[in-house]
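dumping this here before i forget
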Amino acid sequence: MSIQHCNTRHLFAKSFRKHGPEHLSTYLTTFKVGDYVDIVANAAVQQGMPYKYYHGKTGRVFTISRTAVGVEVNKKVRGKVLAKRFHVRVEHLKKSRCDEDFKLRVKTNDALSREAHAKGEKAVLPKRQPVGPRPALTVTAPSIELVEPVAYRFIV
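structure:
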């Protein structure tokens, strides 16, 4: 009979000085349907723990129950991308920051379009530009000094 190893010794291990009971703020976090969440399994709580494949993945909340949160994650299976749905307890979830830039851009674009509408003009919204190459630099070194080895002298 062979023993199956899951290789989670370091995967679920807590980092230095992060051990101990779970903070109350973990349980007081408010999740809403449609929120993006990061799945980070907490080894201190074994109940409602997701399978190790989903550790570090980002998903979307599709339902909220009394003890857990329903999360939908895209998983690539044999060339197809499937939407996997499962329930995870809140100890293993963190609110994701993946759409912060998008929400900020939506707010600024709404403000710009409201200002343009108030003036009676058509809104010209800025487009996102890819980050270009960094500007060229000229590196100047101080005077170059040649160092040669000192001849070996035997001391008597």
